[in-house]
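Deviation from plan, reported transparently: iron/sulfur cluster complex.
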Amino acid sequence: MNIKRKALGITSGGLDSILSALVLKDQGIDVFWISFMTPFFSSDAAIRAAKALNIPLKVNDITEAYIPLLNSPKAGFGKNMNPCMDCHALMFAIAGKEMEKQKADFLFSGEVVGQRPKSQTKNSLRYVEKNSGFEGLILRPLSAKLLSETIPEKRGWVDRDKLFNITGRSRKVQMEMAEKYGVKEYSSPAGGCLLTDSTFSGRLKDVLFVQKDYEIRELYLLKHGRHFRINKRLKAIVGRSKEDNENILKYYREDKDILINPVSLPGPAVLIVSGERTVQAEKIGGLLCASYTKAKPGETTDIHIMYPDKEKTFQVKAQNSSEFKELMI
Ligand code: SF4
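Because the crystal trials were delayed, the predicted structure below was used instead.
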């Protein structure tokens, strides 16, 4: 009697992970997905893909396990603060435990050999497998024929002949496969990981290695507004637009933070997370707020400051915003 095999795939919601799931489904494998979220990448695209394809998905917030990776990843960083190889190893390690819990037979992903210069070479895929703790159980259907045979292939759960040998950055074969399967919507490859962005990485380094002591909400705030490092303990986040202001306010804690707003002119919300009530916080926070309104340099404007236990309005002379360039992270 043929036993229906079950496989758990890691998905970002991108085309490659969608195709790898469909290839296995074609072989009669029961597939389901796991997707991971942190302040640096979300599961939004995975949720959309799972809905469109009707594949069960579990979303896992791995922030706590992820932060230690950012201090010194064993395999190093990519171009920015992206520890891709250790990131994948961690994801497979967590997925592997879920596989065991769900009594699935193996893991899979849409990784393609040579698609990314450092993190998707044969050696790095091997590194990921070894460091995940699930050697032999990770199948990459799109490049399987270029890689060593895995347990699911050896045991005949999956027919290796029907797997692929895709390599490199060209998306030609994947586009043809998408056409065949009728897949029309998917997110761009690696799109959305903020750790690959140089500005975001600079801000992250500042929090991890200069500020050192921080709350998780501060990591979510790194993608909003302009950031100014006033001193080791003090940073001001200045909204760039109405949307930015709204996003910054989502993370504002009345009982801990300092919030500064312009009174008479439209302008930025300025947030100082867990800021102590110091002359410097009030002075520089007020100056930043006034200087990013439409007030001309030298013009006086009213600024409102809210502490956890007190609020007041005071007047500030706007400066040219370029004068704060050195504080900008
Ligand atoms: S791009 Fe980001 S999410 Fe993707 S492997 Fe690299 S660090 Fe992880």
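Residues 76 and 275 are 33 Å apart (CA to CA). We consider this an acceptable substitute for the interim report.
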